[in-house]
């Protein structure tokens, strides 16, 4: 079983910064991808950024140039540095890890952390 625990959310003014942390525990296989998603009220959950264990990253257009995803493989931890925050970044942010086990996709989610950006 895999558990993901997020931290670092909170209330910040527009233009400010936050750093989210997600610590993963359990049996996580190599070749995994860790990611941050977010879900604003009344909207679908969307990918913010992802990072493979080899270091390849991917960003949503809304995150490019403002957010940076990174990871510490030794600690099974993923980070999301968010700068120049905007009110439209307000959402619950979820950590996700995805990997294959004998051709079966394993997909795990954290409980979410609230990010609120005031104007």
Quick structural gist:
This protein has 119 residues and is mostly beta strands. It has no helices and 11 strands.
Overall form: elongated
What is the radius of gyration? 14 Å
Low-confidence stretches: none
In angstroms, what separates the terminal alpha carbons? 40 Å
How much helix is in the residues?
Answer: under 10%
**Biggest sheet architecture:** 7 strands, mixed
| Counted beta strands | 11
- Assembly annotation: single chain
Mean pLDDT: 96
Please state the structural category. mainly beta
Discrete helix count: 0
Beta fraction? over 45%
The arrangement of helices and strands along the chain is EEEEEEEEEEE
Describe this structure in words.
With 119 residues, the chain is mostly beta strands. It is 0% helix and 60% strand. The protein has strands at residues 2-7, 10-13, 18-26, 33-39, 46-52, 57-59, 67-72, 77-82, 91-101, 104-109, 113-118. The strands form 2 sheets. Strands 2, 4, 5, 6, 9, 10 and 11 form a 7-stranded mixed β-sheet that branches. Strands 1-3-8-7 form a 4-stranded antiparallel β-sheet, with no helix packed on it. A hairpin with a 4-residue loop joins strand 7 and strand 8 (77-82). The model has no long low-confidence stretch (mean pLDDT 96).
Q: Topology, pairings included?
A:
Elements: E1 2-7, E2 10-13, E3 18-26, E4 33-39, E5 46-52, E6 57-59, E7 67-72, E8 77-82, E9 91-101, E10 104-109, E11 113-118
Parallel strand pairs: 2-11
Antiparallel strand pairs: 1-3, 3-8, 4-5, 4-9, 5-6, 7-8, 9-10, 9-11
Features:
single chain, mainly beta, four-stranded antiparallel β-sheet
């Amino acid at each position: 079983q895999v558990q993901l625990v997020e931290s670092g959310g909170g209330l910040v003014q527009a233009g400010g910064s936050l750093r989210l942390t997600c610590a993963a525990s359990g049996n996580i296989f190599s070749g995994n991808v860790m990611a941050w998603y977010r879900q604003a009220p009344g909207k679908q959950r969307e990918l913010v950024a992802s990072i493979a264990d080899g270091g390849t990253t991917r960003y949503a257009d809304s995150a490019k140039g403002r957010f940076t995803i990174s990871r510490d493989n030794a600690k099974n931890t993923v980070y999301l540095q968010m700068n120049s925050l905007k009110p439209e970044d307000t959402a619950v942010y979820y950590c996700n890890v995805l990997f294959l086990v004998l051709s079966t996709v394993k997909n795990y989610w954290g409980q979410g952390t609230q990010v609120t950006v005031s104007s």
